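Each field is set out as follows.
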Amino acid sequence: MKQIKAAVDKKQEKLAESREKSKWMKAEIKRLNAQIDSRDKLLKKRFRAMYVNGGNMNYLDVLLGSESFGDFIDRMFALKTISDNDQKLLTAQKQDQANRAAQQEELAKEQKQLEDGLTELNDLKDELLKKEEDQRSQLARLKKEASKIKEKEMKKDEEKEVSEAQTHAIAFENASDSNAVFIKPTQGYVTSGFGKRSFDNGFHPGIDIANSEGTPVHAAAGGVVFRAYHSSSYGNAVMISHKFKGKLFTTVYAHLSGYEVATGERVAKGQVIGKMGNTGESFGSHLHFELYEGQWNPPPHNGAVDPMKFIQ
């Protein structure tokens, strides 16, 4: 990145110098053009006068028309001066024309270098932009990875807290003499069943029941709430322990808009424990309902069973 930026700065300096040089060369060519045009007009007048007066024969007429030897000498020197000036004028004209041609050729080269330099500069800028974009993408990826690591750490802490809370609740829970019978925890239609899903080959440890947000959610059976909290994945969630003839079951109610029970509270079958929502890792209002034979377990959710087999 630093090398590219340095190259861009250096190229911009060279281009600035090239523009100044081109500007000076254009001004110099303009000056030579004006000087050549002015001299060209003067030379045309001289040639026209010579043609009208018979060219070089006019010089002989001037000399032969001398009235004395002194007058002859004066006329001869005058003619030489005119001839020398004409020669100097022609030489200067040729020199300026050569200089103009050289300047025009040099300007063309400078303009080509300027165009090439601009192309190289744009290429360097494009490379710099790509590097910066790659750097931003890499930074975003690193942040995402850091977020995932942090989330995993939080989930591990969360899993530990859930396990400890359930273990504590089990010690104070009374066992029911009835068989394990559960009711459907809310009204709605099942949008995703239990088990392997065809669209992502993932394991779904419960069922999803969809309905409008705010639909009441009931305890599927009597038990003790061992966790009522907000989870990064479950959203607002309630977890309940149930005992039937000494056997432990666990139900989970996730993505609630809110819950109406507290940790440690004993609930009855059918009691409203919260409202359906769309919190946590959720796409649309629904209840994610899980049922475990035994304690709740984190992924791969060992002990999870199909709730529909127990609902009556």
Q: What stands out?
A: Residues 149-154 have pLDDT under 50 and may be disordered. Residues 69-171 form the longest helix (103 residues). The CA atoms of residues 223 and 242 lie 5 Å apart. The two ends are 66 Å apart (CA to CA).
